[in-house]
Amino acid sequence: MVAADVPQSIPTGVPEAAATAGLNSLKAVGIGVPLLYSLTFFAAPLVFLVVLGFWLVEDFQVVPALSLDNYLDIAEHMFAKSNYALAIAQSLWVALTTAFFAVLVCYPMVLAIVYVAPRSRHRLLLMLAVAPFWSSYVLRLFSWQILLANKGIVNSGLAWAGFENLQFKLLYTQIATRIGLIHYLAPILIVVLYVTVANIDRHLIQAARDLGATRWQAFRRVILPMSRTGLLVSTSFAAIVSFGDVLSGALLGGGAGASVLGSVPLFSNMIMSEYASSTNLPRTAALAMILVLVMVLMLAGGAALAERTKVDAG
Amino acid sequence: MASAIHPSDPLAADGRGWRLAGRLYMAVGYFFLVLPIATMIVFSFQKGQFASIPGQGWTFQWYGKLFDDGTLLAALLNSLIVSPLAATGACVLGFLAAYSIHRFRFWGRGAFSVLLVLPVLIPPLILGVAFLGLLSRIGLQGQLSSVILTHMVVITAPAMAVIQLRLGQMPSSLEEAAWDLGATQFQTLYKVVLPFALPGIAGGWLLAFTFSFDEFIIAWFVSGFEQTLPVAVYAYIVGSVDPSLNAVGSIVFALSMLSLIGVELLLFPILLSQYRSGDD
């Protein structure tokens, strides 16, 4: 993704006749095939998703229409029956706190890798951190289920070790949802943050230390500001992924896991379960559009906030 | 990356306490990362249906049950059809796109690469609904091919990224030499560029395969009754507590460790090596 901008000189000398042979057809295939595929199977479905939200279901058949019924119905149930507004609030709350804690947990991990572990070990440590990412996400969540269950491995292990009074009720709460998500996000965040932190010029840190800065001051004044972009990117990435994820909320949150907001399902889980029970695709499309809208607003809010902190810091 | 000019770390030169704290933190972190995978492997060999400590003895019964039962195995086979084909398709698209971006200057070049990378930035839940919407209009839903076609959209970007990294390391003199020696555009592509890009394509393929193999929500929407492994596993988990899942998990993890080693051998050299000039 980065290499796209590597300037590549095009041979300027007059090409031989043979060299130009097939140049145009090569260009046509090279650009045309991926472009056509992308337009047909990526752009077209997204455009159609917007259209589909205005269609209706009559006699179990999807029929073209230009109707606001889906959206009006959803608006009606924002604070009644399905309580979409509560589900959206729950999703935002879980996604934002997950993103915050995920970065809070991964950043010190990366600092430890970069500044404590010897350089020759970095590659191994990164490989190890990325390893969970290569195992199936659904199956890892199953594993977390048997770990976190009320009589699961964590609790039975604690009891076995003599801590009968130290028992956790985690499964089917949004805390479990967050644990699953953080475990899912950690490998990616560690790699992104590693690239950021490892690229900080050590001379700057050395200079700060030489000039009498304490270790904490060197961190606060040099490392932290220089990690800013990496931290912002990983936080927003984590928030987007958490907001759109269905699996952790369904399997660890149990569909309607409890949080401080109450036992309310995530909006993403609601979309999935509504489609499973109704197979009403136009309505599902409308709900999906609302998810997109909320996500765009969330990102815009985050960007505005980042801009403000930049001004404050400066 | 900063080179190791200072033999002693500026942050840890005299801070034993900090070093110790850092090591402890890493230990806890890696324990957290490994915990569910270790659990999965250990309890796939444990007798009790409900996992608890202390264990209840060792057994192979869950692996046996897996092969007797068949639904998960059928799904695994489906996945082993879908993911290699989708990864291959993604590599074809990814290579064509990466080469065009690398080689040609054309109108809308920036937009072209954004369009190809965009699918990974959109939540798969949205894509799942969108794909099903369109596919069901043209009667393509509920087949293995619908999963292949839609997975290709999402996994082309990672494949392309790796191939781009590799092409970025290709000295332009290599192609020029081929042209000077009389090779046509297609000959150069086939005999010079493709062999050079091969490690990148292989690395990209493994990455694309892994993404497809683990993808859930798009497959859930478009696959219908032709479930892929994650979809079947999800249905299974929602239905019951069955340690056979640990057995599947262990098998899948063993498989993906193989691909991880492949990535380690193919991908990391590309990511870590610098641009080398013409003589290799």
From TrEMBL, chain A:
GO cellular component entries: plasma membrane
Compartments where located: Cell membrane
Keywords: Cell membrane, Membrane, Transmembrane, Transmembrane helix, Transport
Annotated ranges, domain ABC transmembrane type-1: 88-300
Superkingdom per UniProt: Bacteria
Transmembrane segments: 35-57, 92-117, 124-147, 181-201, 222-244, 250-272, 284-306
Bilayer topology annotation: Multi-pass membrane protein
PROSITE patterns: ABC_TM1 (PS50928)
Pfam families documented for this protein: BPD_transp_1
One biological process term in Gene Ontology: transmembrane transport
Family: Belongs to the binding-protein-dependent transport system permease family. CysTW subfamily.
PANTHER family for the chain: INNER MEMBRANE ABC TRANSPORTER PERMEASE PROTEIN YDCU-RELATED, INNER MEMBRANE ABC TRANSPORTER PERMEASE PROTEIN YDCU-RELATED-RELATED
Name of this protein: Spermidine/putrescine ABC transporter permease
Organism per entry: Reyranella soli
UniProtKB/TrEMBL annotation, chain B:
Name the UniProt record assigns to this protein: Putrescine ABC transporter permease PotI
Domain of life: Bacteria
PROSITE patterns in alphabetical order: ABC_TM1
TM regions (residue ranges): 24-45, 72-99, 111-135, 147-167, 188-211, 217-239, 251-272
Family (UniProt): Belongs to the binding-protein-dependent transport system permease family. CysTW subfamily.
CDD domains: TM_PBP2
A Pfam family assignment: BPD_transp_1
Source taxonomy: Bacteria, Pseudomonadati, Pseudomonadota, Alphaproteobacteria, Hyphomicrobiales
Gene Ontology terms: cellular component: plasma membrane
Membrane topology label: Multi-pass membrane protein
InterPro entries referenced in this protein's UniProt entry, alphabetically: Bact_Polyamine_Transport, MetI-like, MetI-like_sf
Location(s), subcellular: Cell membrane
Source organism of the structure: Reyranella soli
UniProt keyword list: Cell membrane, Membrane, Transmembrane, Transmembrane helix, Transport
GO biological process terms held by the UniProt record: transmembrane transport
The ABC transmembrane type-1 domain, residue ranges: 76-266
